[in-house]
Amino acid sequence: MIDYRAELPAADRVRGRRGGSVFILVLIVMASLVGLSAGLGFRVRIEMRLAHAYGRKVQAHYFAMGGVERAKALLSEKELSASVVGAACHFNGTAKDEGVFEQFAREGMSGLEGSELGYCVRDELGYFNMNKSDPSVWEKLEGVSGELCGEIVDWTDADSDVSAGGAESDYYARLEPGYVAKNGEVLSVKELLYLRSVTARGYAGEDGDHDGVLDDNERDGYERWPWDNEDNVLDKGLVDFFTVFGDGKVNINTTSKDVLACLGGIGEGAAEIVVNWRLGADGQAGTDDDMWIEDAKGIGEIEGLTELEAELLGQYCCFGSGYFRVYSYSRFKDGFDCCLMATLVKGDGGVEVLCLDRLL
Hints:
about 350 residues, alpha/beta, 5-stranded antiparallel sheet, 11 helices, 9 strands, about 40% helix
């Protein structure tokens, strides 16, 4: 066989090898550029999706803020009294029921089809004050263990002594990242999330919008927030029991039967009598025949309470409030949700937001 390459001049053979090397190099560079372009395109798509998700999250936040503003307007309408506070703290509303979406449609605003916005008002003084109420009664609450009571006490007391079942700085300092116990008054209910045994689910509970109604997404397990155990029961969270506002007394007109029953010397029987009396003849909250207690003397007029129970309730309870908690839940049709928990105070200057937390 004749090797024609051997017959080529040496210079031509070198140029041929160089030409082949350059061709291979060009192929490598082109392949690299194609790979780089594909990688950059993928990254751009991811960043665009993240930007879209962030934008929708911000929109959901401000959509939910609309519910907080609606509650502010509601509380600004009237002077506060026992009956006004009681009625306001039974308020559940939605943007759809109040015709907000229809108004948007008339004004040419679109993009809210299939969206949800719900809001409700509750009384901050309907809960136990973590700084000023008696810790011995908390353990009677469903879902509140003796261990958690000890942790709250250790978080708020000034010493470093560990209570039964509690935890102090020596425990929290070993976490990653570590921190120390506050050893002072709690300024926000959200501080509960720092405690050893508290989880996000235990903190917020299963009632995502806190309207007291069992919705489809509150009994579907892990399909949609809030996560639940699919038992068709709304398990309460710690936010349904605790506050940091007020003087330690609970409002007898707005607090739940669960809280009333925990008070020393009261029990479930007396608590049920008070709650049923408040509901009026129709047994429904938020209707025209609801009853309100204006002062300690009014407690004695509730049939079925003993003289001792009425006296104790007069010591433990107050009859009005200026602090209100608003839950506002928004959801877009593409699945972006937001739930805000705001604390409002009504004073001479109007209604102001004292605290705003995002539960979702």
